[in-house]
Amino acid sequence: MLKEKIKKLAEEWHEDTILIRRHLHKHPELSFEEKETSAFIAQKLSEFGIAFENNIAGYGIVGLIKGKNPDKKITALRADIDALPIKEANSVDYCSVNEGIMHACGHDVHTASLLGAARILNELRDEFEGSIKLLFQPAEEKLPGGASLMIKESALENPSPETILGQHVHPPLEVGKIGIRSGIYMASADEIYITVKGKGGHGALPNDCIDPVVITAHIITALQMVVSRNANPNMPTVLTFGHIESEGGSTNVIPNEVHLKGTLRTFDEEWRFEAHKKIESLISNIAEGMGGSYRLDIKVGYPCLVNEPELTGKVKSRAIDYLGEENVVELPIRTTAEDFSFYSQVMPACFYRLGTGNKAKGITSPVHTNTFDVDEDCLKVSTGLMAWLALSQLAVSE
Fold this sequence. Notes:
- By secondary structure, this protein is of the alpha/beta class.
- The protein folds into two domains: 2-186 and 305-392, Aminopeptidase; 189-302, Alpha-Beta Plaits.
- The protein is 34% helix and 26% strand.
- The chain has helices at residues 2-12, 14-26, 35-48, 107-123, 146-152, 212-228, 269-289, 309-323, 341-344, 378-392, and strands at 51-56, 60-66, 74-80, 131-137, 163-174, 178-180, 183-186, 189-197, 201-202, 238-247, 253-254, 257-265, 293-302, 305-307, 328-330, 349-357.
- The strands form four sheets. An eight-stranded mixed sheet has the order 1-2-4-3-5-16-6-15, sandwiched between helices. It has a four-stranded antiparallel sheet with strand order 10-12-8-13, with helices on one face.
- β1 (51-56) and β2 form a beta hairpin.
- The radius of gyration is 24 Å and the shape is elongated.
């Protein structure tokens, strides 16, 4: 059976895939700077005999594996390749050698997994009909998101896939398991930058000033009404300000300006942009009503990620067939964001989570932390399962 062939190849090439992952982990690069990462991926695709185009949306790569009757049906697989500006604190021989940069979100695992799956699929290309497009995407971690740029630069054309699959590491899930959710899964994410302007002066003479700190305090408190009194209570909205900084203020100095940085997360695209208007209206009324002024910049980020129900149902069924029902779990919605959502806005898509944790081995650190790591047995699951799921979208005779 084809499934057994896939499992055998995933096992046979497991150590090679681990070496690929460790190389990537040791040499991380930031968003839009993935030059050497891209060159390494190109080298591996060439070794595997897989055709590709590079330098798409910066350092992106698109590969293509053709089976029999290659135009019959086409599906796509995606991995992101960039790292984060985090100084690694792990004591492993594959620890990052690039100071202050780390694969703390598992994109090294995603890339190694797609390379491993591609190797399996290319080996089995005479046993399926259709073609499989491979997207090695840059800059998931930084706006405007490499996915949006890949789409703009026609990565989903010539040929055009009918469906797309992606995966992401998930430390809370034990290795050997995956998590999946149909429908709305991940939130949109917009960045909010506010400058509140007043009139500075001596802290002992506030009557001679227009205090932007006080105005800012009222703004932050009032903006929570956007969530508590306007958002649909059945559809979570998050509005968080994680950065507040005054320009020139001190214990006895009222500053001229205060700067805020925050994020808005929603699960409803229509409400998302309505919230933008409500945010500006509140800021304007408060700032100007208290004698100050403001500047607002909302950077529209990633949209909501929606797992198309029919495709996701099929992926779940095939995952159960491959891993066993006990190893496929239902996931809750997440207020985190992913630029894979851009693909989900233009075609049927499914984004699932790969279990990478192992409490017995002490592998429990969350993503985006300086001690994040994975149980590398996950690579055996990720490569084989991704290959199996890709073939489930094509015409395969078992």
